[in-house]
Design goal:
By secondary structure, the protein is an alpha/beta fold. The protein has one domain: 5-stranded Propeller (L-arginine/glycine Amidinotransferase, Chain A). Helices cover 27% and strands 19% of the residues. A 4-stranded mixed beta sheet has the order 3-2-1-16. A 3-stranded mixed beta sheet has the order 4-5-6, with helices on one face. It starts with 26 loop residues before the first helix and ends with a strand. InterPro entries: Peptidyl-Arg-deiminase_porph, TAT_signal. This is Agmatine deiminase. Keywords: Hydrolase, Signal.
Length: 381
């Protein structure tokens, strides 16, 4: 049976955070734009420094506090409650630093509680720290640095004058050097296995709204230099249907070198994102890693959109958008009881040494994002 019309295309239009675009662009944000000229190259030590797989031990988690009614409208208070819930949950397992604007830091402290460190020295436009924050790298010998991905508001779709500076400011606060990749992108657009292999959608990165005139081969080189990798597994993705142009971290994730997971749609689902997920699974199932090991690709069954709590057509119900922190997996549940329980069981099987926390983040999901989207790990050196 097909989904009802409200869910037939689960993330249609610019609906993954698409309503946020109404905020427009500030002059400063627009000035950052999409040119690839003049950006600093990633560190020459990229062969030594590498972005580790996400289950590596963390020093802390970075997050950002949303406070813009021009972006979130009357959903802001609910989204803030979800952000605070995520922060408090992660803080049970590792330190959390929340970046908040000075005018909203007090509210962030009130909702997040004493276990979360709220700072007001790093201004933000929005809560998507995965995309605006730095990507940290380690060298295996006690070294830590960071790479900025030149965030431009997902192709100048949203105000980002402050968020464009977050990566550098977070790195400075953490006391680590930062260089900037020779591409425009976001952390949610690239998955790494920590051993030389990346995966991404062409729709997000081989896109003139981020990287005009840059070829896929040039992007591969830039991505590998930034992440300390040597191979990119590409998926076609879905272009122009959500604000991110189909970030990979909502569908496919690396578990370890040679191991990946894909959230699969129901057999009856046939919208653009269902077809995209099946294509991602097919590509990964036939892929090899940078070290030529065949990829072991597992399925994570997605929910039935008839049965989830939200009836909003923009809702992102992604179990795959989980976050790994020290000792735990932070995931979501959506109200399809059978699918929620099955997803939790799958994650427990994949991470038997971690606590599986499932949270109700429906307000954030209506904005088109998830738990991975609003967190950024700082790995231990």
């Amino acid at each position: 049976m097909n989904r009802p019309e409200a869910h037939k295309t689960v993330r249609r239009g610019l609906n993954r955070r698409g309503f946020l675009v109404a905020a427009g662009l500030t002059a400063a944000g627009a000035a950052l734009a999409t040119t690839t000229e003049g950006r600093a190259r990633a560190a020459s030590a990229a062969g030594t420094f590498r972005v580790p797989v996400e289950d590596a031990r963390h020093t802390r988690t970075w997050m950002a506090w949303p406070d813009s009614t021009s972006i979130w409208g009357n959903t802001l208070s609910g989204v803030q409650a979800d952000i605070a819930l995520i922060a408090r949950t992660v803080a049970k397992y590792e330190p959390v630093v929340m970046c908040a604007n000075s005018g909203s830091a007090a509210k962030a402290r009130q909702l997040c509680g004493s276990t979360v460190t709220v700072i007001s020295s790093i201004p933000v436009d929005d809560c998507w720290m995965r995309d605006s924050g730095p990507v940290f790298r380690t060298d295996g010998a006690g070294g830590l640095d960071a790479v900025g991905l030149n965030f431009n508001g997902w192709g100048n779709k949203q105000t980002h004058a402050r968020d464009a500076l977050v990566a550098g400011r977070v790195a400075s606060y953490a006391g680590v050097p930062i260089t900037y990749a020779d591409l425009v992108g976001e952390g949610g657009a690239i998955e790494q296995d920590g051993a030389g292999t990346l995966m991404a959608t062409r729709s997000s990165l081989v896109n003139r709204n981020r990287n005009p005139g840059v070829s896929e081969r040039q992007l591969e080189a830039a991505m590998c230099a930034a992440y300390g990798a040597s191979k990119v597994i590409w998926f076609d993705g879905v272009r122009g249907q959500d604000i991110t142009d189909d970030h990979v971290d909502a569908t496919s994730r690396f578990l370890a070198p040679g191991e990946a997971l894909v959230q699969m749609p129901l057999a009856s689902d046939n919208d653009a994102y269902a077809r995209d997920a099946r294509q991602q699974f097919s590509v990964l199932s036939g892929a090899t890693t940078a070290t030529r090991v065949p990829m072991d690709t597992m399925r994570l069954q997605g929910p039935d959109y008839y049965k989830i709590r939200s009836s909003n057509p923009d809702f992102l119900a992604s179990y795959a958008n989980f976050y790994l922190c020290n000792g735990a997996v932070i995931s979501a549940h959506f109200g399809d009881t059978r699918a929620d329980q099955a997803a939790k069981a799958t994650l427990a099987r994949l991470y038997p040494d971690r606590v599986i926390e499932q949270l109700n983040i429906d307000r954030l999901g209506t904005g088109g994002g998830g738990i991975h989207c609003v967190t950024q790990q700082q790995p231990a050196a």
